[in-house]
């Protein structure tokens, strides 16, 4: 394996994924591009339908009926899209592991938790004995804070609470010491009280494995708490990206501004909430030009015709990019959302 | 669990009694006088009217229906289902001696149908919309559309009469015998019966596997790096076979219906052949006995379907 | 969302991503055309189903115009010409009583279709009423009716038919009623489901307040909503009923000679001599049953896919 130290761990470049439906072609991802460095936590935020989940699934080649029409996904210099199925499987669950949204359905209901973790271990280490795998699995369960791990090992998913299942899911994901963890809405399906615990556990897991983490979420709070960098997606494209503090304090895309203003905060009155007007565009026939223009307060004529590309903005101390023709106008407006 | 089993058994007993009442009333409502049935037409002469009345009195047929039912019920629960009108033998004995061949035929057919349905349904689900899938669909539709008795006749024509490979009727060769002999007699009826129930089962396996293959845990298994074959057999198929156990149990009575017809075609000495003969001879006690046996089989299968489901699926917790 | 964290998800959008995520393409259908028009269009595109329909139409014409097509009488006994092989005079030969097999085959189509169609109609009617009553009244009545339906479904219908025919005696009306009795539960389950769904809908609550009767609800809302699926179930029931008639008549418990039915024509084929040397006696009626039932099932499958495209290719 070539370890290219100059290239980031994961490079998603101009990725476009389409789904054919009876109504036409759905452009779920349309030119997404971002990178992740070793050990870095990157949050991808966006509404449902922004393409963030499809992007995450594409990394491991798990989007079945969708077709990748453009772009590449390079992991440690290797293009995952052109890798033979067998080599891709060797990466799945070993170097890149995934944590899914709903732990209620993501675990096999008729196989014990223990056997599911053992399977993850033995799939990538054929020489590992059953008893060694069992010991390691119990160790992992204990690591993710599962009380009485040895007894839990023998139980079925339905005997676990939602939070415990997500812990088991995380144990399974870090089993082989991955260098990239993809967490797809890891807390969305959980109770509020459990969400914080699982987020803490994700932090612990990340420190434990030193794995870079791709955190897919619609929850800006989760990003603020965990991520180093943030990628904002809208209608299958990246509209803004940069380090979390920069993007959240000085957003340079009207959509990001809208997201932040729609955030309820304890220190503000409820009537100051500003939801973004309108609704996300149809992915069957996305609007020409900037996909956000129908909802954008800054939209001008050229926004309706010219598609803005990602470009560097700000003072250049940290790389902050946005896809807006009029990003500089936002710089003039002081945002109150400053954390 | 025990409470659940006891409750289900009690419910089934009540249903069984209700079915018994239904069959009893149906026979009473039937046209024709059972006493006249028992007398051979040639014995019916002048003056036998008085004899018939005396016989009716003797058999209690002039008592109120409720009394008659009570008497019949008490007899029935002690295993006395009366005597056949035709050969005067006890109905229970007649049915019991034919139970074995029917069970042999049905269990062989069940094994055959599973050996066809599980692999075929799995391949059809995994290779959706390919020629294998279409072939499986054609087979399923074919076997539910072509009457099994016609398939039986065609099979006899080809394999017994033209090729001379297999015997066409009965369960063993008179005088001969042995395991291989019975097996040779068993092959055709069991294969046709198995094929007939493999059709719906294949569609079932395919449908439920397709549902399972789109489940989240399948994606998890793929994300773990499991190969497609392993994802199907260790994960999806395991889940889709759990409801299959219930489906098989529910299908056993339907299979009996097929057996009844095929026993007639292949002169297989089972309960179905006995029932068809009894119906043609209007031998009511045997018909009633057969109906009660079938009812018991259906209820037991339903009960087993529930219990099997509870036993196999770790999610089902019965209290 | 119960917490203070913002949710960016609107229901419609969430549904849309569901589509993309689970890749169920069929769910993104527009409602621009009328459901009936779309169903008809989908049915016409299904060549196998259309082929089945054309074949059934031919059989139906054959049955209706039987006297014009068959030159011989189906019941005229000619003891001088027993079990003759096919010839110019008797296209498919003669049976054990010297009756013309071709004429019997053509006239038998009448009986098979009559029993099949009427039994299915009766079953659908019965099932619709029972299902609607169960769904509309609910409570213990619902429980009793649906338990009975489940019970009926778990019994092998052929066995019930044999017992009924054995006790009540074989005749066409009893045959039709018996088949209907064993077939109604499928429709009842379906209609009950639709009834419960329809009942939940807002406008019916309003209609009930306005004093609408249950009969009105049945005619105006439930039946139209369930119609597509009722037609599908009804069609598939026709196939089942034709098969049931054939089996019973084959066993001598259905249509009685001299009247011809495809099933009782095969009744002769219980002797090895007939099977071996007189295939004209059993091959044509057997093929007729198989082809007709297959055609009905093709149409039924086509209708199901047309009415409910999401079900296509499933179970």
Automatic annotation (TrEMBL), chain A:
It is found in: Cell membrane. Gene3D superfamilies: P-loop containing nucleotide triphosphate hydrolases. GO terms for biological process: peptide transport. InterPro entries: AAA+_ATPase, ABC_Ni/Peptide_Import, ABC_transporter-like_ATP-bd, ABC_transporter-like_CS, Oligopep_ABC_C, P-loop_NTPase. Residues 10-260 form the ABC transporter domain. One of its GO terms (cellular component) is plasma membrane. It is a peripheral membrane protein. The keyword Nucleotide-binding applies. The keyword Membrane applies. This is ABC transporter ATP-binding protein. It comes from Jiangella ureilytica.
Automatic annotation (TrEMBL), chain B:
GO terms for biological process: transmembrane transport. Keywords: Cell membrane, Membrane, Transmembrane, Transmembrane helix, Transport. One of its GO terms (cellular component) is plasma membrane. InterPro entries: BPD_transp_1_N, MetI-like, MetI-like_sf. It is a multi-pass membrane protein. Gene3D superfamilies: MetI-like. The chain crosses the membrane at residues 9-30, 103-126, 138-162, 182-201, 241-266, 286-312. This is ABC transporter permease. It comes from Jiangella ureilytica.
């Amino acid at each position: 394996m070539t370890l290219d130290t100059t290239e980031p761990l994961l490079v998603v470049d101009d990725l476009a994924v389409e789904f054919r439906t009876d109504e036409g072609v759905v452009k779920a991802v349309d030119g997404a591009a971002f990178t992740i460095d070793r050990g870095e936590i990157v949050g991808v935020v966006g509404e449902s339908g922004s393409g963030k989940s499809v992007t995450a699934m594409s990394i491991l080649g798990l989007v079945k009926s969708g077709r990748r029409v453009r772009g590449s996904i390079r992991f440690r210099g290797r293009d995952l899209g052109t890798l033979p199925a067998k080599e891709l499987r060797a990466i799945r669950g070993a170097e890149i592991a995934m944590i899914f949204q709903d732990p209620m359905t993501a675990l096999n209901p008729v196989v014990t938790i223990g056997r599911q973790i053992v399977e993850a271990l033995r799939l990538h280490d054929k020489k590992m004995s059953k008893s060694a795998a069992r010991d390691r699995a119990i160790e992992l369960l204990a690591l993710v804070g599962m009380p009485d791990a040895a007894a839990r090992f023998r139980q079925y998913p339905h005997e676990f609470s939602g939070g415990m299942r997500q812990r088991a899911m995380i144990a399974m994901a870090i089993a082989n010491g991955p260098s990239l963890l993809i967490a797809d809405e890891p807390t969305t399906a959980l109770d509020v009280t459990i969400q914080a615990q699982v987020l803490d556990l994700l932090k612990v897991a990340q420190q434990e494995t030193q794995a870079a983490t791709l955190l897919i979420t619609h929850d800006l709070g989760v990003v603020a708490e965990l991520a180093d960098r943030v990628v904002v997606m809208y209608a299958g494209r990246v509209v803004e990206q940069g380090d979390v503090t920069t993007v959240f304090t000085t957003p340079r895309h009207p959509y990001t501004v809208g997201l932040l203003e729609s955030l309820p905060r304890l220190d503000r009155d409820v009537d100051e909430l500003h939801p973004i007007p309108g609704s996300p565009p149809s992915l069957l026939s996305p609007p020409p030009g900037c996909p956000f223009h129908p909802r954008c307060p800054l939209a001008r004529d050229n926004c309706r015709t010219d598609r803005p590309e990602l470009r560097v903005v700000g003072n250049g101390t940290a790389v902050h990019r946005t896809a807006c023709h009029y990003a500089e106008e936002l710089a003039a407006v002081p945002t109150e959302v400053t954390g | 669990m025990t409470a659940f089993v006891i409750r289900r058994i009690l419910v089934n007993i009540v249903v069984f009694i209700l079915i018994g009442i239904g069959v009893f009333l149906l026979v009473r409502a039937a046209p024709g006088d059972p006493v006249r049935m028992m007398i051979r037409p040639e014995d019916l002469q002048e003056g036998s009217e008085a004899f018939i009345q005396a016989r009716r009195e003797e058999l209690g047929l002039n008592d109120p229906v409720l009394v008659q039912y009570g008497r019949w019920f008490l007899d029935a629960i002690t295993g006395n289902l009366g005597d056949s009108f035709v050969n005067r033998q006890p109905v229970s004995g007649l049915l019991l001696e034919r139970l074995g061949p029917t069970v042999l035929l049905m269990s062989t057919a069940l094994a055959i149908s599973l050996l066809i349905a599980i692999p075929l349904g799995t391949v059809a689900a995994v290779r959706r919309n390919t020629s294998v899938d279409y072939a499986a669909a054609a087979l399923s539709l074919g076997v539910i559309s072509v009457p099994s008795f016609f398939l039986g006749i065609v099979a006899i024509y080809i394999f017994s009469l033209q090729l001379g490979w297999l015997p066409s009727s009965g369960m063993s060769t008179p005088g001969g015998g042995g395991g291989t002999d019975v097996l040779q007699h068993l092959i055709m009826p069991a294969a046709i019966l198995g094929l007939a129930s493999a059709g719906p089962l294949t569609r079932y396996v395919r449908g439920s596997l397709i549902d399972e293959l789109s489940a989240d845990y399948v994606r998890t298994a793929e994300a773990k790096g499991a190969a497609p074959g392993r994802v199907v057999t260790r994960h999806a198929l395991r889940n889709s076979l759990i409801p299959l156990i219930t489906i098989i149990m529910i299908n056993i009575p339907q299979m009996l219906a097929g057996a009844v017809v095929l026993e007639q075609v292949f002169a297989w000495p089972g309960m179905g052949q006995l029932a068809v003969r009894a119906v043609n001879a209007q031998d009511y006690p045997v018909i009633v006995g057969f109906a009660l046996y079938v009812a018991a089989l259906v209820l037991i299968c339903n009960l087993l379907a529930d219990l099997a489901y509870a036993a196999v699926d770790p999610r089902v917790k019965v209290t | 969302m119960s917490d203070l964290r913002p949710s960016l998800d609107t229901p419609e959008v969430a549904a849309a991503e569901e589509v993309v995520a689970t890749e169920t393409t069929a769910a993104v259908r527009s409602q621009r055309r009328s459901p009936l028009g779309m169903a008809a269009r989908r049915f016409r595109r299904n060549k196998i189903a259309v082929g089945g329909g054309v074949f059934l139409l031919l059989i139906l014409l054959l049955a209706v115009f039987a006297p014009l097509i068959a030159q011989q009488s189906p019941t005229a006994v000619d003891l001088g010409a027993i079990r003759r092989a096919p010839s110019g005079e008797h296209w498919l030969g003669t049976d054990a009583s010297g009756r013309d097999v071709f004429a019997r085959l053509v006239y038998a189509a009448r009986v098979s279709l009559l029993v099949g169609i009427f039994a299915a109609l009766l079953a659908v009617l019965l099932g619709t009423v029972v299902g609607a009553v169960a769904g509309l009244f609910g409570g213990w009545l619902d429980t009793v009716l649906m338990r009975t339906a489940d019970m009926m479904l778990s019994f092998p219908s052929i066995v019930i038919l044999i017992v009924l025919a054995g006790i009540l005696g074989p005749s066409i009306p009893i045959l039709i009623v018996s088949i209907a009795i064993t077939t109604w539960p499928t429709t009842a389950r379906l209609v009950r489901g639709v009834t419960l769904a329809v009942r939940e809908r807002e406008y019916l609550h309003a209609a009930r307040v306005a004093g609408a009767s249950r009969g009105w609800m049945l005619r105006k809302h439930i039946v139209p909503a369930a119609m597509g699926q009722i037609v599908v179930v009804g069609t598939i029931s026709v196939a089942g009923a034709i098969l049931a008639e054939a089996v019973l008549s084959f066993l001598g418990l259905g249509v009685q000679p001299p009247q011809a039915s495809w099933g009782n024509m095969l009744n002769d084929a219980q002797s090895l001599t007939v099977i071996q040397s007189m295939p004209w006696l059993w091959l044509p009626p057997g093929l007729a049953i198989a082809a007709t039932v297959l055609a009905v099932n093709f149409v039924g499958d086509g209708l199901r896919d047309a009415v409910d495209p999401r079900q296509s290719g499933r179970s």
